[in-house]
Amino acid sequence: QKEVEQDPGPLSVPEGAIVSLNCTYSNSAFQYFMWYRQYSRKGPELLMYTYSSGNKEDGRFTAQVDKSSKYISLFIRDSQPSDSATYLCAMLAGTASKLTFGTGTRLQVTL
Amino acid sequence: ETGVTQSPTHLIKTRGQQVTLRCSSQSGHNTVSWYQQALGQGPQFIFQYYREEENGRGNFPPRFSGLQFPNYSSELNVNALELDDSALYLCASSAPGVTSTDTQYFGPGTRLTVL
CA B49 to CA A85: how far, in whole Å? Predict the structure, then answer.
């Protein structure tokens, strides 16, 4: 079993839709949770960073962490064609140096 | 403030050859991490360098090695290339202990193709 599970998609939604992206994890040592966006053939770009359980909002993006269920989510409101990309969840244990990534979910926002 | 840069952008090698990839960290960042991303997969941690010392290593064989220089730039060396080494190699820089988080910022990557 992988430490971080993420549905690879692809996920196709119409412009303006609310998108929900999710990851589950098995390692209780994970304390920091991140979402990265990666366009084709580019490096990952940090979108959201959270530490504790609860919600964090930044513009159209909301990150949600539920440590008791080992489940994190990223919500995108009013999705745009420019949001079409692969979304990677990543996690960090407090004393570790490495990020552990999910497989990534490919999102396509259509006109 | 300049971001993370990597060179070269693309590289084609043959099996058995050796390759060196380079990374310049973001201004003010003293830590560099290297990741390998196979097609359709998430990045896999190779190793991290902090102040010129290796600070954690993933499940990669010894033919993957690295260096960090006094200016915090870094190199990834891969010897005896295998076909499965074909991937996007990503460098990320961070400043643990300097900034409030250990957030890692990624460069654009080097795409390595092994024939």
Answer: 29
* CB contact at 8 A, B9 and B88: no
**Using CB atoms, which residue from A43, A88, A103 is nearest to B109?**
A43
Question: In the predicted model, is pLDDT for residue A46 greater than 90?
Answer: yes
- Give per-residue pLDDT as tens, A18-36: 999 999 999 998 989 999 9
A32·B101 Cβ contact <8 A: yes
Q: Do residues B73 and B30 lie in contact, with contact meaning Cβ atoms separated by under 8 Å?
A: no
Q: Provide the 3-class DSSP secondary structure of residue B38.
A: coil
Do B20 and B113 contact (CB within 8 A), yes or no?
A: no
Task: Find which of B104, B110, B113 to mutate to test the A interface (most A CBs within 10 Å of its CB).
Answer: B104
Inter-chain CB proximity B106 and A100 less than 8 Å: no
Kindly compute the dihedral angle of the four CA atoms of residues B77, B81, B87, B89, in this order, to the nearest 10 degrees. Answer: 0
Quick one: pLDDT at residue A21?
A: 97
A57-101 pLDDT per residue, tens: 999 999 999 999 999 999 999 999 999 999 999 998 876 678 999
Closest partner residue to B102 (CB to CB) among A4, A45, A92 is A92
> Rounded CA gap, B104 and B111, in Å?
20
